[in-house]
Predict the 3D structure of the following.
Amino acid sequence: MAFMLLASICASPAAVAYSPDLDFSYRLSDDNAEAQAVITDQDGDLTSATFYAIDENSSKVIWTEYRMIEGEKASLNFTWPLQSWWAGNGTDLVGPMLVVNTIGMPTSEAPYEALSAPAVLKPYPGSQDRTTLAYFDQDGVFHSLVGLDGASYYKSRELLGATDPGASYGLYVKNNLSLWEGQTSLRFFSLYHNRSLSPYPPLMLERSPIQHFTILLERKDAPQGRYLLEVEAEDSQGSKTRKIREMTLR
């Protein structure tokens, strides 16, 4: 589900007969910007809507919220807390980066995989890069790393306990883990307004898996400046409609 979500965000609009109709407005307060969107589709096959907050100066997307929808009409509220996502390992910090709310995870996993971020995994120097999704809880704690092919590279002790109660985390690390502190690195991405992705310098995994390799998502307040708020709607044929509003933070 998360990989499909990422593909939808980065894909170009398809040329099809009917596109969704979309309109939205926003309200800015001291601690957030709230967008109210109304989406309709003549074919009645709406599938998703995505909200983006974009730094107009850098063209980087600094906040994303994804929703699954269906039918011919949807009324949605999106809230941007006037912040961006960054990732650090206790020494280095990169961002703002692409982080997406995760949808459709099993109940036992959902609290530990509330957020996801695409990342390039290099298990050790000289090894082949692997495309993955890193999963985090709402506090930004790193809990899971899954490959594009579904291979599991890492589960936290908390996630393993939720999905396999009674399992020994020590045995899991010994028999299954293929990440090594001080050797393995992750490269996260920035997403630009034109939907292109650009990797940041690698973050080395530090310390032990029981300490989540010290990889942590952090929120940073958005600086004063001009921003673009965008809502994009998509239907089952891949047809997309985008609307943009300008906003200034003072």
